[in-house]
Design a protein that fits this description.
By secondary structure, this protein is of the alpha/beta class. Helix content is 37%, strand content 10%. Strands 7-8-9-10-11-12-13-14 form an 8-stranded parallel barrel. Strand 11, helix 10 and strand 12 form a beta-alpha-beta unit. Bound molecules: 4-O-methyl-beta-D-glucopyranuronic acid (GCW). The site of 4-O-methyl-beta-D-glucopyranuronic acid has 12 residues, from loops.
Length: 701
């Protein structure tokens, strides 16, 4: 077959096949611009790799697959480079340790006409290989490559909330990707693509089961299954963690108690931890949700979170693994403020955790709301390693029917200054360990993967998995850059199209917030399924699972007073932060109702009253969804037809649901403000009762 004919066939095949999204950002479609392809030819004559290490083999094969797709060119491999014009994979274990390059870091540079990818570890070379592919996928020149990159955070982790029965808690992309009923005998080939996708963005850890954990995952039967997964992920540099149920010594071990100070319980965990290591020698460790939302924990026995976490850390002492203990805890107190709970329970324990324990804190104090102030624990725990927990799966952010790009939201939190050690003490610096010189550092994201053919449901939800990984590697990357990379790797390299899509993505989070939770409102979603609006929800199993607990609407105004007048949650922050958010006249409008109960007629910095501004934002959000639709429609000829139709359909649903949120909220709050929808906005075309019925349907049996 001549080269041109081969290229022709390749072009034909890629043109004919619609993109089902299954390849994620590793689609490696042929670069359309022949000149650009040619520009890469001088550097892609061969791949030189001296050892037959499995990770290096994977790096080599990835480069071969990627370059075959992108350039239409089969690349040979050699043991050592004898000429110029190739890619050399180089592991230099004895390289002097430099402050800039960690074990997982890499350098990519050109030398004597070759591209060198060099690292102290095989995994670092694999990351470098993906970086090189990304350079080509995003259309960069290879002529003067000079990249030095090291991860800022050590443990970059996905948390799967996947259950043994194949369901996924808060999963919106089908059922679980883990086929527990098939493992260990059949190992689904999708695990390999999962590993490749994660390695391509530097994710190096995964907890495979729900934090509302079944003890089943610690049985020999399941350990064999988990081992099979760990064996697939290992050469991609990914360690496996298990979420554990604190009551396991009783349920599995038949002990009378799971009290962490009981010697038999401690022995049980020591033995279990040893047993796990027989299956998975490089086991990552335990992830624990304890004494939260009904899960068992050390407090059941009058012990503290530290007692529980330290017991597990002791079991882990002979091994490299760690214990990740979640700080997501809150008691049901109708007169309390959930905002303060995690802080209150953990603050007295600062300094008492074993060095192997990381306390994993959600980005905000409530629960992954579309916009939350940063969790007050960040910056307030100098003697405890705190890890970040973001939610990639969009429980409160449009699930799989709203286009919401989350990098700006993640960054808003990471870039906020805690002022813990003076100006510049950002949340990111707490998390990457630099503020307090922590031995470990962790950024976790609750995964959005599932059995859907495109993994994530909404095609754009893939970008949130991608963005999470990129930010865990380097939180200084901009949302714009990450969006641009993802679009170029996934949808198109054509600049004007890329710009339009990037614009849609960058606007999407503010738009979503506008029609759901403007001005710092929170937690008004449908009960338990968390789908759609239900601001009128006043009764639930717990007061802090209602909506009225959070928005506090009354005849005077709206918002939760967290100043000294009521809950005083603001006091948990440093004085500079208190100053920024504590004064309703100066508090940024995006955070206003998080901290203040503001009268309906109060004039805001926009010149409008609170009520008018609220309506304005709800209405504007809906208009903006219309604009997203128009932009997308204009791109019909420029993106893959299957993806185009898929997104188009979902935008239509988003429009309908945005209107649902708008009408529900303005009609409901209007009953308190007693004020009309301000002109020239048109009042909703339906009544509050009609809207309430929409939600009731979801509770019918
Ligand atoms: O956001 C809430 C979810 C629960 C989840 C919990 C948690 C795993 O609604 O489904 O449980 O947070 O983070 O533990």
């Amino acid at each position: 077959m001549t080269r041109h004919f081969f290229l022709f066939l390749l072009l034909l095949s890629t043109a004919a096949l619609a993109d089902d999204g299954s390849r994620l950002w590793l689609n490696y479609d042929l670069i359309k611009d022949a000149k650009q392809r040619e520009s890469y030819a001088p550097f892609t004559k061969f791949i030189a790799v001296a050892s037959d290490n499995q990770t290096l083999k994977i790096a080599t094969e990835e480069l071969q697959t990627g370059l075959l797709g992108l350039l239409g060119k089969k690349i040979v491999t050699v043991k050592t480079a004898t000429t110029s014009g190739g890619i050399i994979l180089n592991v230099n274990k004895n390289a002097p340790s430099s402050a800039n390059i960690s074990n997982e870091g890499y350098e990519i540079y050109t030398e004597k006409g070759n591209i060198i990818i060099s690292s102290k570890s095989e995994t670092g070379v694999l990351y470098g290989a993906f970086e090189l592919l990304r350079a080509i996928q995003t259309g960069k020149s290879l002529a003067k490559l000079s990249i030095t990159s090291s991860p800022k955070v050590k443990i970059r982790m996905l948390n799967h909330w996947d259950n043994a029965n194949g369901t996924v808690e808060r999963g919106y992309a089908g059922s679980s990707m883990w086929k527990w009923n098939e493992l260990p005998h059949r190992v689904d080939p999708r695990y390999v693509l999962y590993a490749r996708a994660n390695a391509s963005i530097g994710i190096n850890a995964t907890s495979i089961n729900n934090v509302n954990a079944s003890s089943r995952f610690l049985t020999a039967e399941y350990l064999e299954k988990i081992k099979a997964v760990a064996d697939v992920l290992r050469p991609y540099g990914i360690k496996v963690f298990i979420s554990v149920n604190f009551r396991s010594p009783r349920t599995l071990g038949g002990l009378k108690t799971s009290d962490p100070l009981d010697p038999e319980v401690r022995k049980w965990w020591n033995d279990k931890t040893k047993e796990i290591h027989q299956y998975i020698p490089d086991f990552g460790g335990y992830l624990v949700k304890a004494n939260s939302e009904g899960e068992p924990g050390p407090q059941d026995y009058g012990r503290t979170h530290a007692d529980g976490a330290n017991m597990l850390a002791e079991a882990m002492r002979p091994f490299s693994g760690i214990v990740i203990w979640r700080a997501f805890v809150y008691n049901a107190d109708p007169n309390g403020d959930r905002f303060k709970e995690g802080y209150a329970q953990f603050k007295p324990l600062d300094g008492t955790f074993d060095p192997k324990v990381i306390v994993q804190v959600k980005n905000g104090p409530i629960d992954f709301m579309p916009r939350e102030p940063f969790h007050p624990m960040f910056g307030a725990f100098p003697k405890t390693t705190l890890g970040m927990e973001f939610q990639i799966t969009q429980e409160y952010l449009g699930q799989s029917t709203h286009l919401t790009y989350l990098a700006p939201m993640f960054k808003e939190c990471l870039d906020t200054d805690t002022y813990a050690k003076g100006q510049g003490s950002t949340v990111a610096k707490v998390i990457d360990g630099s503020l307090y010189n922590a031995q470990y550092s962790l950024m976790a994201g609750v995964a959005n993967t599932g059995s859907d053919v495109n993994w994530c449901g909404h095609p754009f939800n893939q970008s949130n998995w991608y963005a999470f990984g990129r930010l865990a590697w380097d939180h200084t990357l901009s949302s714009e850059q990450i969006a641009s990379e993802w679009i170029r790797m996934t949808l198109t390299q054509a600049k004007p199209t890329e710009q339009k899509i990037s614009d849609m993505m960058l606007k999407s989070h503010p738009i979503y917030v506008s029609y759901t939770y403007p001005l710092g409102t929170s937690h008004m979603m449908g009960e338990s399924h968390h789908y759609g609006p239900e601001p009128w929800l006043a009764k639930s199993a717990r007061p802090d699972w209602t909506s009225v607990y959070y928005h506090r609407a009354d005849s005077v105004g709206l918002g939760f007073d967290r100043t000294g007048k009521l809950s005083n949650a603001l006091q948990l922050y440093s004085p500079e932060v208190q100053q920024k958010w504590g004064n309703p006249e100066q508090c940024p409008l995006d955070y206003l109702l998080w901290f203040h109960h503001v009268p309906w007629s109060k004039k805001l910095s926009t010149g409008r009253s609170l009520w008018d501004e609220l309506c304005e934002r709800y209405y504007d959000g809906v208009v903006q969804v219309g604009n997203l639709q128009k932009t997308w429609e204009s791109l019909k000829a420029d993106v893959d037809p299957e993806i185009f139709e898929n997104v188009k359909g979902r935008l239509k649903i988003q429009e309908k649901e945005a209107l649902w949120w708008r009408d529900a909220c303005v009609l409901y709050f209007g009953e308190y403000s007693k004020m009309p929808i301000p002109k020239p906005l048109t009042p909703p075309q339906r009544t509050l009762n009609e809207i309430k019925k929409l939600v009731e349907i979801y509770h019918l049996r």
